[in-house]
Write a structure and sequence with these properties.
alpha+beta; Alpha-Beta Plaits; five-stranded antiparallel beta sheet; about 30% helix; about 45% strand; Ribosomal_bS6_sf; ribosomal protein; small ribosomal subunit rRNA binding; Transl_elong_EF1B/ribsomal_bS6
């Protein structure tokens, strides 16, 4: 199997400050790097108004990260992100599909 390119976007709790948000992002990206994947610098958009309320919250911290890894590693990343109460929503898109 070969590595695929992915883009992860997640929305985290708006109460997290920038340092906590970066720590959370780095913690989850270690899931990729520990399995030999590559992670680009995260693009932290910060607090934004949500299109609709999620868990009684009107705002969320948006983070976008591009990375490459094996499909099973990306599936595990998605699984562990969904277990964290500080992560409101996740979306992982495979970028190298034609």
């Amino acid at each position: 199997m070969s590595a695929h390119k992915y883009e992860l976007m997640f929305i985290a709790d708006p109460e997290l400050d920038e340092r906590a948000l970066r720590k959370l992002t780095d913690q989850y990206m270690e899931t990729v790097t520990n399995e030999g994947g590559k992670v680009e610098e995260p693009d932290i958009w910060g607090r934004r108004k949500l299109a609709y309320e999620i868990d009684d919250k009107n705002e969320g911290n948006y983070v976008v990260v591009n990375y490459s890894c094996e499909p099973a590693v990306s599936a595990e990343l998605d699984r562990v992100l969904n277990l964290n109460d500080s992560v409101l929503r996740t979306k992982i898109m495979r970028k190298d599909v034609k």
